[in-house]
Amino acid sequence: MTSRAQRVSPRDLAAALLSLAAVLGASPVLAQATKPSPPAATAAPVKLDTVTARRGDIRQTVDSAGKLQLHTWADVYAQIGGQVKEVLVAIGDTVQVDEALLDITPTQQPAKVESNRAQMARLQADLADQRAQLEFAQLQFKRQTQLKAQNATREEAFESARMNASSATARVDAITAQIHELEATLKIDEEARQKTLVRSPIAGTVVSMAARTGQMLAAAQPAAPLLRIADLSEMTVAARVAEDDVTRLRPGMAASFTTPGYPGKHWSGKLRQVIPIPADGTGEQGKQAFYTVLFEVKNPDRELMSGMSAQVQFVVAQARDTLLLPAKGLGAQDEDGQYNVNVLDAGQHVAARKVKVGLRNSQQVQILSGLAAGDKVLVGPVPNVLPAPDAGTTSAMASGS
Hints:
The protein is of the alpha+beta class. The protein has six helices and 17 strands. It has helices at residues 10-24, 28-34, 110-149, 155-194, 243-246, 391-398; strands at 50-52, 54-76, 82-87, 94-95, 100-106, 197-199, 204-209, 216-217, 227-242, 254-258, 267-278, 290-298, 309-326, 339-344, 350-360, 364-369, 376-378.
């Protein structure tokens, strides 16, 4: 039995084609139409350079270079002529006051001293004899005076007695003068004998020596000293300060310094004196003048030595626990002496303020008014991309602190 083919309607055919297209994928035109658009690009954040106002300490200083030198020392010379018999100390030794340093054999011979003493003994014997003769002459004169009053002696006898008494008195005076002169000589001899040992005038350390065993010495030594004794427990710093800065220094100011031999270690003292004449070789023919400024520093451990270089700071003014701002945050100065700054808040809004400054150095300035601790100050000009503050915020921020 033969079956008859079923007829398909046009609507059924269209539906079948649509189903096939869904299985195989949409057409390029339809896919492009249904493709989602990319997200819109966001603006990059603006990087701002700011500094923050914080509380701290600030010092205004004058910096200079200097040298360490001895503060207390004494030069030792020979007080008598002679030959150095023995040197009793060496460089670096610690000595006490009146301690023997050198032993000198004097040029003057001991025989001369003994001769002077013998002469003194003879003069004293002569003086005793002349005093006896004087006493006898005075008795004779007294007797002749009594006889003359009684008109019982001749005039020649009276005058002879008077002359003998006067002559005896003169001889006694002459011998007494010789004795005094010889006593002075003997005293010099005794002092010279005591000076054969050269002693230290101060307590300290032997820092230089020019004496040697066997050296001949003159009584008055015009050349270099035989020894130098120095007290190293205290040193002097001699700083060279330029004429532009020296007028800011006053005695009693705090001073500190460092030296390359002890990195990171600081010493301090008080300014003692400003030498009021320029240092050698400065201030001539248009050159800048430098002045020597002195202060002392304790050196109990003998760490510091003469000749060491020093980087010195004199504290002209200082303030503690005050409001500070890095110097680069300041803007231009106005006619009133105040500075313009731009303060940035948490919402990236900028407000202009005027601040009054006090002390300043190369890194920081002291803020007297216009800012509070924690305020962020914009460095440089204000970028155009920052959002403008609203009126209320601007008014509140511009009022300052």
